[in-house]
Amino acid sequence: MVEARIPPGAWLPLALGAAWVLLIDTGVFAHPLMVPLHEVLAAPFVDEQGRQIWSAAASSLVRVALGFLIGTSLGITLGVAIGLSRPAQLAVAPTVHGLRQVALFAWIPLLTAWFGNGDLVKIVFISISTFFPVFLNTEQGVRGIAPAYREVAAIARLGPWLRLRRLVLPAILPSVLTGVELALLTAWIGTVGSEYAIGTGRGIGAYLATARDVFRMDLVLIGVLVMALVGYGLSRFAQVLFLRLIPWRTR
Amino acid sequence: MSTPTLEAVPTALSLRNVGKTYLIEGQDLPVLQRIGLEIARGEFLSIVGASGCGKSTLLRLIAGLDDRFDGDILIDGEPVAGPGVERSLVFQDHRLFPWLNVTDNIGLGLDSLDLSRREREARIREQLELVGLTGFAQAWPHQLSGGMAQRAAIARALVSRPDILLMDEPFGALDSITRAHMQEELLRIWREQRITVVIVTHDVDEAVFLGDRVVVMEPRPGRVQSVIEVDLPRPRERTGADFNQIKQRVLGQLKR
Amino acid sequence: MAAVEHLAQGVGASPVPRAPAWLWRTALPAPLRRLLLALALPVAIVVLWQWAAVRGWVPPQILPAPALVLDTFLELARGGELLEGFLISLQRIGSGLALGGPMGLALGIWLGVSARARNHLEPTLRALFAVPTLGWIPILILIFGIDEALKVIVIAKAVMVPVVLNTSRGIRNIPLAYLEAARVLRLRPWTRLTRLTLPACLPTVFSGFRLGLSHAFIALIVVEMLAATEGIGYMMVWGRKLFQLDIVIVGIVVVGVTGYALDLLLRRLERGLSRWVPEHG
Predict the structure, then answer these.
(1) CB-based burial of residue C262 (10 Å sphere; 0-12 exposed, 13-18 middle, 19+ buried)?
(2) Which residue among C120, C134, C255 places its CB closest to the CB of A193?
């Protein structure tokens, strides 16, 4: 016997949605900020400014991909290089930890002074946002390779390249992926954040800034919704991917 | 002290046809089946059995931690409905709250009673003396040894002056020297407080040393296999021939 | 520890023993050695930076000399702007904490205690919590404008999320052993709350507040940079507008040091707390 039941978790959203439609769509509450639900949902398709969300999203995705790739490759390379050498660890890691204490957003004024207002500065910012978690997790992963494994490698007299491929890289994979997963979300927030702060150009952040400036709550809601959905999609994608790459790790 | 006859003293605790079944993945798993016991007031009853015979489950049912079971559990003729002031339970791990000192832990046993502050303090003092922890009133649980912590737990259980003290392998985590000492202490407390004690243990020696009767349970599903009278005067000699004879009887039953 | 170091050296190093390394090792005690190494890079950067500024390799609008930055810092400190901005920012965090903290605690307790509440509210809350602080800012700006209410609300939201999550988790993770003991002892609801629930989940709850405060600080900086006319965050935007990067850099350093100090202080408090409330379970 199959019962069609609404799961308890859905009651609140459904109730809120119903209230929204009943109070605002019908015009009971009239206020420039209270946009009818159906208008909000239709905006990406019918509204002239609403339609721009698609190109804005595409723009942001391209940026995050670029910045993420740059930050990740730098982070992994440096993380491995520095993790392998104890003196380098002691010299570099404290500085990176210190720089990480600065809230990422605080770098934006300096970066815009150096790199202007265009795509470059945004990609630089995204790369920096990505770099920190990837580097720190990779370096920690390298440091954490059990001494027993190192001993085996030393005894087997594996040359540096072979040691890297066969011992270091597989052993640090879980740590690296943890850092990458974290970095993905940080990068995405950094993308929209830098676009929003800088305001010019295309992207979800710029879209939000413009919508805010023209007082269009419906466009703001769309922008935030898209940002949240992409963020969720990215982290789900990362989870699924990593589950495939390291199936022996339980969450 | 001889075992009182059932006719002369009213039954404190009565189990009739008690059973418990767990539902695991759609299958019924019977844990206890048709348990029948009559325990007299003031009796000391030991329950032994191998792991999986449900003895702990049975004790928890009596304590009222679980109220889903078949059959009847009666206290002085009244069916149990959840935990009650007349029953106290001592667990194998002392379960003292680490953020309260010994006095406050014992005081928890009085929470459900409406006593004046003076009465509370008097009772707690009384219990500390009873279990021999008078100097440790302000101590923290982590400062106590295993035996002392368990004594504090017993004090917490007794401070409400229950009629029935239930103990679930209370000395299992202690070393054998402390355990022997605690067993003697327990007998002393039992005599002084005149309570009914039901102790669950896997240690046959302990069961025979302590109990007026030893209930032997067998597993899968948990059932009462036999009840053996320990008709020996106390203090009992663990090395005595009589003692050993009864112990062998119990062991024999367990092996079946 | 020394053995691991030795092995680590072995993994990357050549088989030939290096006499200078041996001397280096025994000349100085280990902690001092570590400190010197840690300082080597930043000191080198600052020296290079100063040299570049002095030599004019980079114009001062792009990279003000470290000496200038130091001067500006002292000037701002003496002039009181730094302290003023600091106090305003501190007040905002305080208000946000006072708003978001108790709300988060209450909601977290409710969710921890009631499975029904969890079932009904968790999906919605999770979706809301998944939207980063940044996402809330444009929505809240449209509703509240850019005055103080906005900043306090943004900070309150940033505090609430970890507090709710940690509190509810802390309550749900109270060991069953204690819950059973409480049942057997027939503790009254108030006693249960004050003598079992709250002390048992205190470490986790505190950890939630520590995280909340970290997030609050970041949210403060973000919202001050985007929608304020005073405060540490605003100071950086202001410096940038005037193309006085020395002010911006002072701001960056202040933000970094404050964030670090805050986190350090809270971690110390947390450790001290867990010593006082001994290990459970």
Answers:
(1) middle
(2) C134
Q: Do chains C and A touch (3 or more CB pairs under 8 A)?
A: yes
User: For residue B68, with 0-12 CB atoms within 10 Å meaning exposed, 13-18 middle and 19 or more buried, which class applies?
Assistant: exposed
- C196 interface with A at CB cutoff 8 Å: no
Q: Is A54 on the interface with C (CB under 8 A)?
A: no
Q: Which residues does chain C have within 8 Å of residue A92's beta carbon, measured at their own beta carbons?
A: 41
Indicate yes or no: CB of C277 within 8 angstroms of CB of B98: yes
Best residue of A34, A80, A84, A102 to probe chain C, by most C CBs closer than 10 Å? A102
Answer for the pair A134, A67: CB distance below 8 angstroms, yes or no.
Answer: no
Among A147, A155, A156, A154, CA closest to C12:
A154
- Residue-wise pLDDT for C23-71, tens only, equals 556 666 777 888 888 888 889 988 888 888 888 887 877 888 888 889 8
Rounded Cα distance, B19 and B61, in Å: 10
Question: Residues B41, B8: contact at Cβ < 8 Å?
Answer: no
Does an H or E element contain B46, and which? strand B44-49
Closest in C7, C252, C263 to A106, CB measured: C252
Strand order in the sheet with B87-90: B87-90, B164-168, B196-201, B44-49, B213-218, B223-229
User: Per-residue pLDDT tens for A84-101?
Assistant: 888 888 888 888 988 998
CB contact under 8 A, A103 and C221: yes
By DSSP bridging, strand B78-79 and strand B164-168 are unpaired
Residue A10 touches chain C, beta carbons under 8 Å: yes
For residue C136, list chain A residues with Cβ-Cβ distance below 8 A: 224
From the list B65, B111, B140, the residue facing C191 with the nearest CB is B111
Instruction: Give the CA radius of gyration of chain B.
Output: 18
Closest residue by Cα to residue B86 from B12, B144, B6, B187: B12
Q: Backbone phi, then psi, for A84, in 5-degree steps? A: -75, -20
DSSP type of residue C262: H
Report which of B98, B90, B211, B102 is spatially closest to residue B158, judged by C-alpha positions: B90
SS3 C111: helix
ipTM (interface pTM): 0.87
The Cα–Cα gap between A107 and A99 comes to 10
**CA atoms of C156 and C162, how far apart (whole Å):** 11
Question: Which residue positions in chain A have pLDDT lower than 70?
Answer: 1-4, 146, 248-251
Provide the 8-state DSSP code for A251: -
Q: Are A89 and C205 contacting, i.e. CB atoms less than 8 angstroms apart?
A: no
Query: Could you tell me if C257 lies within 8 Å of chain A, comparing CB atoms?
Result: yes
Angle between helices A204-213 and A52-84 (to 10 degrees): 130
pTM of the model: 0.80
CA distance C142 to C192: 44
Partner-chain contact C240 A112, CB within 8 Å: yes
Residue A39 burial (10 A CB sphere; 0-12, 13-18, 19+): middle
Chain B residues inside the 8 Å CB shell of C183? 65, 83
